[in-house]
């Protein structure tokens, strides 16, 4: 396994671009299909366990504006001992991860 992604992150990605029109939606779909079909990417499905554990992290940080998807992803990353994340989302940096897309 080289890389991991939670399905929730890919869903958030598609949600973000959902109002961008046909061209943008098509590009977003191609991007997700490329990621999901890459044999080097471990795609993690959301389970009841991940949901409940994500909810615990979400509840434990009332001073943060983390999304539930962020919390679930952080828990998955912790379980896989992943410390570097392909995002510009500063929430991950606040939790001690190295974000690779600095803005």
Describe this structure in words.
This protein is mainly alpha-helical and 103 residues long. The chain has a single domain (3-99), classed as 5'-nuclease (Rossmann fold), CATH 3.40.50.1010. The protein is 56% helix and 12% strand. It contains five helices and four strands. The strands form two sheets. Strands 1-2 form a two-stranded parallel sheet. Helix 3 packs across helix 4. It is globular. The two termini are 28 Å apart. The mean pLDDT is 91.
Distinctive features:
5 helices, 103 residues, Rossmann fold, single chain, two-stranded parallel sheet, globular, mainly alpha
In short:
By secondary structure, the chain is mainly alpha-helical. About 55% of the residues lie in helices and about 10% in strands. The protein has a single domain (about 5-100), classed as 5'-nuclease (Rossmann fold, 3-Layer(aba) Sandwich).
List the helices and strands and how they pair.
Blueprint: E1 3-6, H1 7-16, H2 21-37, E2 41-44, H3 48-60, H4 68-80, E3 84-85, H5 90-94, E4 98-99
Parallel strand pairs: 1-2, 3-4
Helix pairs in contact: 3-4
- Class based on secondary structure composition and strand pairing: mainly alpha
Low-confidence stretches: none
Q: Give the distance, in angstroms, between the N- and C-terminal Cα atoms.
A: 28 Å
Q: State which percent range the strand residues make up.
A: 5-15%
Per CATH, the superfamily is: 5'-nuclease
Morphology: globular
- Taken together, the total number of domains comes to 1
């Amino acid at each position: 396994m080289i890389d991991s992604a939670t399905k929730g992150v890919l869903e958030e990605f598609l949600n973000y671009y959902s109002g961008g029109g046909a061209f943008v939606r098509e590009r977003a779909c191609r991007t997700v299909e490329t990621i999901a079909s890459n044999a080097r990417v471990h795609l993690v499905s959301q389970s009841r366990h991940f949901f409940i554990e994500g909810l615990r992290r979400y509840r434990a940080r009332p001073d943060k504006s983390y999304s539930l998807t962020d919390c679930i992803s952080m828990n998955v990353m912790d379980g896989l001992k992943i410390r570097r994340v392909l995002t510009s989302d500063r929430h991950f940096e606040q939790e001690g991860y190295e974000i690779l897309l600095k803005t």
